[in-house]
Amino acid sequence: MFWKFDLHSSSYIDTLLEREDVTLKLMEDEEDVLQECKAQNCKLIEFLLKAECLEDLVSFIIEEPPQDIDEKIKYKYSNISCELLTSEVSQMNDRLGEDESLLMKLYSFLLNDSPLNPLLASFFSEVLSILISRKPEQIVDFLKKKCDFVELIIKHIGTSDIMDLLLRLLTCIEPPQPRKDVLNWLNEEKIIQRLVEIVHPSQEDRHSNASQSCFEIVRLSRDQMLQVQNSTEPDPLLATLEKQEIIEQLLSNIFHKEKNESAIDSSLQQFGFNDEKFGDKDDIGSVSFDRVSDINFILNTNESGNITCLKHVVRKEYTSLMMAALMRRISGKKSTLHLPQNPKEDPAQGVQTVKKVQILKKKMGAKQDLF
Prior knowledge:
This is Serine/threonine-protein phosphatase 6 regulatory subunit 3. It contains 21 helices and three strands. Helix 15 runs parallel beside helix 18. It has a domain of 83 residues. The protein is mostly helical and 371 residues long.
């Protein structure tokens, strides 16, 4: 962004501030107000720190503007208010982060019915994320007191900016202990279980973002583990997501009898089924199976001997390939398909089983000794 340099702008804003009838809207009508705020104009900051101004700033970003306003300027004040609240002005962050009544007003946005206004949700998420990064202990303590916070996040997870807020809560906090407290808190609130629960065909408006959230939690947790190599404590969210019962539920939900192509596609795409290492999607799609049954996934963990086994029965063509891709991406560990090699071991499938095993070996790039 290029700022307009006007030697008279500061003095004009100062002149406006001397008026007794000056309002926040009047100040936001000035095109240089954001520049002056970032330039630490003392009079302007003093004005914005007034209780009534801070309350109006929060109101602008969480409340729907009047319907009769021209669409071109409908969200003008919402946008400028968000820019002011997220500017590099520590005094505003301090005042907002320490005023519980203002925080409650901001938080009330989550109490709205779904779906949320996506533009207002972006303003809300950006402001709260800034507060989390700059006032982590105060904001996290405030959120912990709200028993419905995680429930509301799950309720609105279909709104992308609310999903982003959840992920920022995991990444914006840099001090080790506060970050650890957040992870433990979210784990105690069963955030993983709640996300997995809505990765389900019946949740058409939320399953895509829920599956993406799970994937991002895996990625972020592993990245953090690489950065903090001396850490002896496992990431609680990652540990929960890798539990056998959680993976079983995730797979069961994805391949539920009420199959939804969107739910399956979005979930598997998030967990890397389209990755080149799992083969070409078009090539896989050209293979036609009548039935694939009794697929055993053997997940070999580390050398400590902690081995996790997951068994899941699937009756959908290509499902074995998709599940293998999903499990590899979730666990980060080696996964193999174990199917009967001898027709006598599975008389119900007979010769067809051997043919399917051969095709699966070829598609997965598996060696003969894996089966």
